Amino acid sequence: MYSKKVPDKFPDNFLWGGATAANQLEGGWNLDGKGLTTAEVVKKAEDRQNFTMNEVTPESLQVAVNDKTDELYPKRRGIDFYHHYKEDIKLFAEMGFKAFRLSIAWARIFPNGDETEPNEAGLRFYDSVFAECKRYGIEPIVTISHYEMPLGITLKYNGWASRKTIALFTKYTEVLFKRYQGVVKYWMTFNEINASTWGFTGTGALDSELDEPAKMQLRYQSLHHEFIASALAVKQCHQIDPQAKIGCMLARMQTYPNTPNPIDVRAAQLQDQLNLFFTDVQVRGEYPEYMNRYFAENGITLEMQADDQQIISAGKVDYLGFSYYMSTVTSANDEVEKATGNFAFGGKNPYLEASDWGWQIDPLGLRITLNEFWDRYRVPLFVVENGLGALDKVAPDGKIHDNYRIEYLRKHIEQMKEAIRDGINLMGYTMWGPIDLISASTSEMSKRYGFIYVDQDDEGQGTLKRLRKDSFDWYKKVIASNGEDLA
């Protein structure tokens, strides 16, 4: 008779924490030798439903380069973590964080991307950040490239469209792995690598003047270069610091068939394949067969070198990190009402509520995703982004009462626990983002995710004072109880 105990709680070493990105957080965009990044030439949106992160043209780029202010480019100022990191990490420690996911700004280390030697001042900044994390027993989870690269690489090589960018990236990663050997135990190569199919924010390549087929050719070729760079970085990491773990990161676009009609089921299956293609390459170490037909039908021909497949096979990641915010439905009928959020362009689900930004809230979908990932890959999983962007307001009593955020996170954490009971190997949970920061998609400040309120508005006005929201004390209780006390 077969019988095995079902786990009924989160693992004792579960990595509770929060996640951020350098270009939404740091500020200090022109200090201590840092170069301009691709994220810092994206203008803020005039309409919060309009994602501007890929709206960069040669003309707008030239305007941005000549503009030496942060007025139209809020990611340049972030929330000034560059000068507030000690205060902010202390607040994370007060909540009991076991882990803090952050990214390194590539242009702090190589300002133009192709320098002979790294910028020591940039490295010293991260020395200090990691030392502060160690002071409080917080594990840094480091994303190597999170929606940015040195702008010099775009100007000189057109970003990841050029194979030459691979060598620039591996030089950068070698510096990081050697500098932070034994300091950083968990790395990820690219944030939401599937963002490269959306354009500039992922590829760093200008493609606005191309027609749609040419755009997709450029984007998938850029992705191939990123896959090679990621695989080489995995090999580097394992050689330089065998104790470290290095993973990939996917924006999970969970979708369901709109109806039981087999044509809807097949349409949803195709969308799922197009989302899981990236992790198939990075976790399984090979291009999946289903993409051959997709490439052929869309006129995409990838240029590969003879040893590329061997490099990808040898550079499989140790764990799978992913973001999960929402789900959609997929229909073969284009007339289905759309729901958008985090670049998930599917149909609205009548069974789900939505956030102020139209992102459909589906906690059970997280459990479904975790099960599907585990069945497909059998590698440790890590929820590295999940959260609720909302219009938080300071109440007359001077506090921020965000019970809606508590409810959102509670329901998702409950489903993670159910997934663990299903047998999933789940490493941790770093919600997005523990402190209010600049929106990736619209560059606004009004869309707030944090447990910590930052006094800054969309125009950059405010004291930058940090205030604890109601959710701050709630998450502190969740971590202290290792996910048992969610009330």
Describe this protein's structure:
The chain is of the alpha/beta class and 487 residues long. The protein has one domain: Glycosidases (TIM Barrel). Helices cover 38% and strands 14% of the residues. The protein is built from 15 helices and 16 strands. The protein has an eight-stranded parallel β-barrel, surrounded by five helices. It has a two-stranded parallel ribbon with strand order 6-8. Strands 9-10 form a two-stranded antiparallel ribbon. α9 packs across α12. The protein is globular and about 55 Å long. The protein starts with 14 loop residues before the first strand and ends in a 7-residue tail after the last helix. The model has no long low-confidence stretch (mean pLDDT 95).
In terms of topology, how is this protein built?
Layout: E1 15-19, H1 22-25, H2 58-66, H3 81-95, E2 99-103, H4 106-109, H5 120-135, E3 139-145, H6 151-157, H7 164-179, E4 186-190, H8 200-203, H9 212-240, E5 245-251, E6 254-257, H10 262-284, H11 290-297, H12 308-314, E7 319-323, E8 327-330, E9 338-339, E10 346-347, E11 353-354, E12 360-361, H13 363-377, E13 381-385, H14 403-421, E14 426-432, E15 452-454, E16 466-468, H15 470-480
Parallel strand pairs: 1-2, 1-14, 2-3, 3-4, 4-5, 5-7, 6-8, 7-13, 13-14
Antiparallel strand pairs: 9-10, 11-12, 15-16
Helix pairs in contact: 3-5, 7-9, 9-12, 13-14
